[in-house]
Please model this.
Amino acid sequence: MEPIVIPVHTGRAYDIILGRGLLSEAGRLIREVHKGSRVLIVCDSNVAPLYADTVRDSLIKAKYQTVSVLTFPAGEQHKRLETVAHFYRALATAKFDRGDLVVALGGGVTGDMAGFAAATWMRGIDFVQIPTSLLAQVDSSIGGKTGVDIPEGKNLVGAFWQPIRVIADIDTLSTLPQEYVTDGMGEVVKTACIRDKELFALLERDQAFSPALLTEIVRRCMLVKCRVVENDERESGERKLLNFGHTLGHALEQHLNYTGISHGCAVAVGMAAVTAASERHGLTAPGTAARLCALLSKFGLPTVGPVPVSAYLEGVKSDKKCIGGQVDLVLLSDIGEAVCRRIPTDTLEEFILR
Ligand SMILES: NC(=O)c1ccc[n+]([C@@H]2O[C@H](COP(=O)([O-])OP(=O)(O)OC[C@H]3O[C@@H](n4cnc5c(N)ncnc54)[C@H](O)[C@@H]3O)[C@@H](O)[C@H]2O)c1
Ligand SMILES: [Zn+2]
Model:
C-alpha cells in the first residue's frame, strides 16, 4: 500500500507521510526535504532498542554521513530541562550547525523535547518527527508545539516549531503497551467528537482494528488536527476545540498529582462529565452523553473518575486557560460538532454539577 501524504499548510508548510513499513524508508523520505550531512536521532530507552537501528541504517543508506542516536530514560518525569541540556551537549560535541537535523523517534515525550531542542539550538534547526505512540501520531507530532515540564507545571516552557516532515509508521503501534493504546484512544475519541462524526461511527461499529483500519483512524485524526492547527497556528481561537474534555481532565490529573490517572483516561472522564452537563442544560443533542460513554467504555476508558468532579472543580479555576474569571469550555452541540462557550468561573459549579 502506498503511503498517504497529508500536506500541512502552516507558516512553514510540510508533509505528513503515513503508512506501513516506513521506518526503513525514513532516510529516503528525509532526504527529500533535508540536504545536510549530520543527524541526531533522539529516542527514549524503550523505543531505542526496538527501532533506532532501523532508522539509523536507513539514514546511512540515504548518505547521511554522521548519524548518532541519543537515548534518554523513558517517562514523563524526564521531560525536563536537564534532559534537553543533555541533548544540547550532544549537539555541541558533534558540532551541529544550522544545516543539521534532529530526528525525534518515539512518543510525545520524545517529540516535545527533541522538538524543543531543535527549536532552540542555534535559534532553530531542522527537525523531523517519527511518532511511534498512538498519541504522538494522532496528536502531539502535529501542530508544532514543543517543550518541557518544570516543577511548577507541565509544558510551561516551550516554543512553536514546525517539523520539516512527519513520518508515521502504523507498524510501530504493534509494540506499544496496551495502556498507551488505551490512552491514545482517549484523544482519538476526542477528535471524533469535535470534528468527525464518521470516525465516531466507525469507532462504534468495528470490534477489531486491522492495520488498514488503524491507518484510516490515524489518518482521520491527523486531518482534523491539521485543519484546526492550520486555521489557528498559535492557539487563539479554533485550536481551543482540541481542549474538549481537557479542562476538567487536566484538573483531575493535577488533583491526583499526575500519578493516579493517565492523561487519556482523565480526558475521557472530562469529556463524559462536560457532555452530561451540557446535555442537561439543553445545549447538546439528547443521547450524546450516552453514546460517548458507551464508546469510551468500549475502549476501556473510564467515564467517571476515582474522585467526584466536585473534588477537583476548584482546580479548573487555576488552569492556565482560565482568564479574567472566565473559562472557555468546549462542548458538543452534537457528535462531530464542538463549540466553545465562555463561562464565568463562579457559575462553573452550577453548570457542571446541576
Ligand atoms: N506537543 C503537543 O501538541 C502535545 C499534545 C499532546 C500531548 N503532548 C505530550 O505528549 C506526551 C505524552 O505522549 P506519549 O503518551 O506518547 O508519551 P511517551 O512518549 O512517554 O510514550 C509512552 C510510552 O510508550 C513507549 N513507547 C512509545 N512508542 C512505543 C512503541 N512503538 N513501542 C513500545 N513502546 C513505545 C514510551 O517509551 C513510553 O514508555 C506528554 O508529555 C504530553 O504533554 C504533546
Ligand atoms: Zn490531550
Q: What stands out?
A: Residues 187, 246, 263, 267 surround zinc ion (ligand 2) (CB under 6 Å).
